[in-house]
Amino acid sequence: MASKLERLQTLLNEVQDLRAVADVLEWDQQTYMPEGGGEARAEQFATIKRLAHEKFVADEIGQLLGDLSADGAVGDYDSDAAGLARFAKWEYDRKRKVPAELESAIAQHTSLAQEVWAKARAENNFEAFRPALEKMIDLKRQQAEAFGYTESIYDPLLQEYERGMTAAQVKAVYDSTARQTAILAARLMLDFITVRALK
Fold first, then answer.
1. CA distances from 154 to 116, 158, 171 (A)
2. Which of 101, 112, 106, 104 is nearest to 42 (CA)?
3. How far apart are CA 22 and CA 107, in angstroms?
4. Nearest alpha-carbon partner for 128 in 139, 138, 113
5. Could you give the C-alpha distances from 61 to 11, 168, 170, in angstroms and in order?
6. pLDDT range class, residue 49, cuts 50, 70, 90
7. What is the pTM of this model?
8. What is the reported pLDDT for 151?
9. Distance between CA 155 and CA 148 in Å, rounded?
10. Distance CA 161, CA 184 (A)
C-alpha cells in the first residue's frame, strides 16, 4: 500500500501544481496584467484549469483512491494518509461528475468576466457587467446540475466552501442573525432615546 500511497501523493501534487499555476494567472490578471490581455489570459486560464481537472479525475487516481479508501488500507482512521485518501476520494467522486469542457468554460468565462467587471466597476455601470454575470450564473447552474442535488441548486456549489452544509442551514443562520441584529438595533435605539431624554 505504501507504493500506491506514494503514487497517489505524486499525482495529487501534480494536480495541485497546476491549480497553483491557475491561481497565479488569476492573481496576475487582477493585479499586474496590462489592459487588453484578457482574451489570451482567459485561454491560458481555461487550459490550465482543464488540464488540472482532467489529471485529477483520471482513472488512475480513481483506482488508487479505491484501493486506499478501504478500511485500514493506509493506517487507522485518524492517520494523515487515511484522511488524505478520504478527502481526495470525496473530491474525486464529486469532480468526476463535471465534464472537462464545462470546467474549462467556467474558467474561461471567469477570466473574461474579470476585465468586464473591472471596467464596469470603474465606470459605476452595473448594466455593462450584467451579461457576463448572467452567463456565469448559467454556467454555475450547469455545474450544479452536473453535481446533482435534491433540495437547493446551491447545495452542491456550497460544498466548495463548507463541506456538508446546505443552503437551508445557511438560511437558518442568516435568519437567526437577522432577528438578533434587529433586536440589538431596537435595544440600541431605545438606549439612545433614553439617554437623550435624560439630558
1. 25, 6, 11
2. 112
3. 9
4. 113
5. 7, 33, 33
6. very high
7. 0.82
8. 94
9. 9
10. 29
Q: Is the pLDDT score of 184 beyond 80?
A: yes
The pLDDT of residue 55 = 98
Q: How far apart are CA 89 and CA 41, in angstroms?
A: 31
> Three-state DSSP class for 75?
strand
Q: What is the pLDDT of residues 83-120, one digit of tens each?
A: 899 999 999 999 999 999 999 999 999 999 999 999 99
Residues with Cβ within 8 Å of 48's Cβ and at least 6 positions away in sequence, in order, are 18, 21, 22, 25, 107
Task: Determine which helix (DSSP H) or strand (DSSP E) holds 55, and give its type and residue range.
Answer: helix 38-56
Cβ atoms of 143 and 102 within 8 Å: the answer is: yes
- Digit-coded pLDDT (tens) for 141-165: 999 999 999 999 999 999 999 999 9
CB atoms within 10 A of CB 18: 19
Amino acid at site 117: W
Q: Which of 5, 35, 26 is nearest to 119 (CA)?
A: 35
